[in-house]
Amino acid sequence: MADSVFECRSAGITLPLRSGVRPIIADISLELKSAEFLTIVGPSGTGKTTLLRMLGGLAPPTSGAVLVRGEVLAGPPEGVVIVFQDYANALLQWRSVAANVAFGIERTMSRAQCNERVRDALNLVGLLDRADDFPWQLSGGMQQRVQIARALALRPAVMLMDEPFAALDAMTKAGLQDELLRLRDQTKVSFVFITHDIEEAVYLGDRVAVLNGSPGRIEHIVDIDLPFPRDQITTRQLPAFLAYRYDLHKAIGHA
Amino acid sequence: MRKLKDLAAHMPPVRGLLPLIVALVAWQVLQTGNSPYFPPPSTWWKGLEPLIASGRLLSASLATLQTIVAGLAISILAGGTLGIMIGLFPRVERALGPLLEFCRAMPPPAIVPLAILFLGYDARMKLTIVALSAMWPILLNTSSAVQRIHPILMDVSMSLRLSLLDRIWRVVIPSVIPAILLGVRIALPLTIVLTLLVEILTSIDGIGALMIAAQRNFQSGQVYGLLVFVGLGGFLLNNAFTLVQASIMSRWPPRSVNV
Questions:
Q1: pLDDT digit string (tens) for A16-60?
Q2: What is the CATH code for A1-20+32-67+156-255?
Q3: b/e string for B185-221 if b means 16 or more Cβ within 10 A?
Q4: Residue A224 to residue A204: CA distance in whole angstroms
Q5: d(Cα A172, Cα A191) in Å, to the nearest integer?
Q6: Does B153 touch chain A (CB under 8 A)?
């Protein structure tokens, strides 16, 4: 594997809340390699979103350090983009699909270059024919694809995804999972993908990290050794898949 | 063409004017003679004719319209800017809050004497009063809409490394446009009322000045004629704004006017 993109060195976040100072995540040590798909799975209330916000530079660690390509993180790093779960609020309602995809790049690029990138990104997520519609005219799955396209238009090195498919129905979810794996192959982007769905974590991940407890800590990191390309039916029936699923359920404490 | 048809759907139906027309015809037919208080509708037009012929109606309409439009423009700019500052920065809200509450509670006509003292009898004074009073609904709508912008939208723009100015220009201002339009919806009739009121109070040129002059000269037909003219003008302005609002709001999800 190539060099690491992200590195957390016993990083933690403590927040002052009404009930007193509260540690949300603690002692996080993680490494994300280039072109790797890391999924983080854990029950709710273990600080998954906080961890992702920390990686995205939206919430600075209060202890330890986060390094991006060897440099200490200060604010949202270049080449790292977040895809949020709440697609309806993450998109700009008054902008067309194409203008939403251009949102991250329009300030720094010529019009022609920007349009080309928008076309490429929309093409990757299969929404080229909806470029002129408004987000609220699309289905939930399509809106989430617009958000993914907006991230892709930046040609990021890392995509941080916060339960991006949690609000979608099972069929849409399965389609987008495969799309994401295809995008990883085509673009060599690294992914940090947060989910509470253990099967999703195993299906997508090269590695699965388990976040558990309060404050949330990384309790296990499991290497997923399943064949590529992954397939919604056959991969999910492999004995190895079921074994990973079992182990992770046990690790989280649903035994 | 379809777009025009959609927009027309926002206009009130013309047949709604029927009761008014019936009432006016009844008035004309049932009138008894030359009542100084209730001149028949046929004399209203006669009262307006000299004003039209001398060009005074046109110049007065232009003066009034100018005050309305400029006053509204200033109140949108001032109310929008202040509203965004107050919504974005709690410190500004704390610093200006009590003063703004005080100014808002002041009845607009009450500042007319003071404004005359400071600015004299001119168009600037008219404009100041109109803009100062029409600003409030826009300011309040804007600041509360800024505070209701979804935090995720701010996370998105931080994560995409937008500067504060870019965030205001590309996220905050567009997000509050529906609220600003709603504020203008309330402010527009207010500017019309205040413009006429100031003109009537001060006799500075404008339709209001013509009305008070006609009243002082006991030309009751002319007073009624001007009243109808003003009513029509207000009706047209309000409907023109409805069209503008509808065409801008076509970019937002239907019924998403977040109040």
A1: 888 888 888 888 888 888 888 999 998 888 888 888 899 998 988
A2: 3.40.50.300
A3: bebbebbbbbbbbbbbbbbbbbbbbbbbbbeeeebbb
A4: 9
A5: 20
A6: yes
Q: Is residue B258 part of a domain?
A: no
Beta-carbon contacts of residue A15 (< 8 Å; ≥ 6 apart): A21, A22, A24
Q: Exposed, middle or buried, A20 (CB in 10 Å: 0-12/13-18/19+)?
A: exposed
Residues in A closer than 8 angstroms to B160, CB to CB, are 76, 81, 103-104, 154
In angstroms and rounded to an integer, the radius of gyration of the C-alpha atoms of chain B is 22
Q: Is B251 on the interface with A (CB under 8 A)?
A: yes
By Cβ distance, the residue of B156, B162, B253 closest to A90 is B156
Give B155-202 pLDDT, tens digit per residue. 999 999 999 999 999 999 999 999 999 999 999 999 999 999 888 888
Provide the residue ranges of all domains of chain A, joining segments of one domain with +.
1-20+32-67+156-255, 91-155
Q: In DSSP terms, which residues pair with A99 in a beta bridge?
A: none
Q: What is the ipTM of this complex?
A: 0.84
Write the CB contacts of A197 (distance below 8 Å, at least 6 apart in sequence).
Answer: A41, A166
C-alpha dist (Å) from residue B86 to B81, B162, B173, B177: 9, 21, 13, 16
Q: Whole-prediction pTM value?
A: 0.82
